[in-house]
Amino acid sequence: MKRLFFTTAIAALLTAAPASAESGDWLVRLRAINVAPNESADIATIGGDVDIDTSVVPELDITYFVRDQWAVELILGVTPHDVTAVGTSLGDVDLGDVTLLPPTLTLQYHFNPQGQVRPYVGAGVNYTHFFDADLPAGSALTSIDYDASFGLAAQAGVDFALDDDWFVNVDVKYIDIDTDVTINGAIAADVQIDPVVFGIGLGRRF
């Protein structure tokens, strides 16, 4: 699924036909996003899988048009998640919660940037930093550590103009996030999070 999504987004970027220019424009959007992990894990020693809950949070993104319909977008936000190891030899184990800081940079093609309806596609890279990892109170576990992640990202969205400057935005992204997790300094887990991120919000053109 990841390979198909990335390939489709990149192919659309490379084959899109040119339209009117918007070089030098800035777009700023504030979205409410639903971060839905497609989680899986390979847990050494105790086996099992992982369950990571969905998070709904605000997100800020900043887009700059480098020329014509081509733009770069920086996506900023933090997402807290509850984590559980499921189906292990010890049963289900509550691993507490952790917060992700996943800044994502994409290159976008905007098909109709001066129209009323302005669809776009994008592809890029993601870096995810994990912090505030807290084990549940009274847990028999003593420590949990998450390694940072580098991965690809793909997106598609559309802006609906309200007037010359303001617009409503709908956006969906798929982000490749993998992390090596160490529990109690001894139990290693390779965890794929790979969320689909759906967002809706309001934006302004500068």
UniProtKB/TrEMBL annotation:
<dbReference type="GO" id="GO:0055085">
    <property type="term" value="P:transmembrane transport"/>
</dbReference>
<dbReference type="GO" id="GO:0019867">
    <property type="term" value="C:outer membrane"/>
</dbReference>
<feature type="signal peptide">
    <location>
        <begin position="1"/>
        <end position="21"/>
    </location>
</feature>
<dbReference type="InterPro" id="IPR005618">
    <property type="entry name" value="OMPW"/>
</dbReference>
<comment type="similarity">
    <text>Belongs to the OmpW/AlkL family.</text>
</comment>
<dbReference type="InterPro" id="IPR011250">
    <property type="entry name" value="OMP/PagP_B-barrel"/>
</dbReference>
<protein>
    <submittedName>
        <fullName>OmpW family protein</fullName>
    </submittedName>
</protein>
<keyword id="KW-0732">Signal</keyword>
<dbReference type="Pfam" id="PF03922">
    <property type="entry name" value="OmpW"/>
</dbReference>
